[in-house]
Amino acid sequence: MEEFDFQELKGRIKGKFELQSDFAKAVGMSPVSLSGKLNNKVPFTQPEMNRICDALGIDKEFIPILFFKEKVKTS
User: Fold this and answer.
1) Can you say how many angstroms the Cα of residue 13 is from the centroid of all Cα atoms in its chain?
2) Average pLDDT over residues 53-65
3) Per the structure, how many domains does the chain have?
4) 35 lies in a domain?
5) Is the dihedral of CA 29, 21, 53, 35 positive or negative?
6) Global pTM?
7) How many helices (H) and strands (E) does the chain have?
8) Residue numbers of the domain that contains 46
9) Helices (H), 17-45
10) Confidence label for 1 from pLDDT (cuts 50, 70 and 90)
11) Residue 12, in any domain of the structure
């Protein structure tokens, strides 16, 4: 599976919600599910991306930046 860099998304979550678990609840997913997605174990679905943008007050045009920035591999 392709790995994506979710640092921007994580920063916005931290900026608006104190805890990732609070954010997970706000977007209708479990903290374990959110963690798996942020750690590239499970992909985000389009409806989840839309709910996340709504919860963070981010325009949907930023979906590519938040969810599809490729992780830079270092060797």
Assistant:
1) 8
2) 96
3) 1
4) yes
5) negative
6) 0.90
7) 5, 0
8) 7-67
9) 20-26, 31-38
10) low
11) yes
Pair 30, 48: CB distance under 8 Å: no
- Confidence at residue 9, expressed as pLDDT on a 0 to 100 scale: 97
Token representation of residue 74: 């270092």
Whether residue 42 is contained in a domain is answered as yes
* 7, two tokens: 């640092």
What are the CA-CA distances from residue 4 to residues 21, 25, 60 (Å)?
21, 23, 18
Q: What is the pLDDT of residue 75?
A: 64
Give yes or no for a contact between 60 and 19, defined as CB atoms under 8 angstroms apart: no
pLDDT of residue 18: 87
**CATH code of the domain covering residue 28:** 1.10.260.40
String of b and e for 2-26 (b: at least 16 CB within 10 Å)?
Answer: eebebeebeebbeeebeeeeebbeb
The pLDDT tens digits for 9-56 are 999 999 999 899 999 999 999 999 999 999 999 999 999 999 999 999
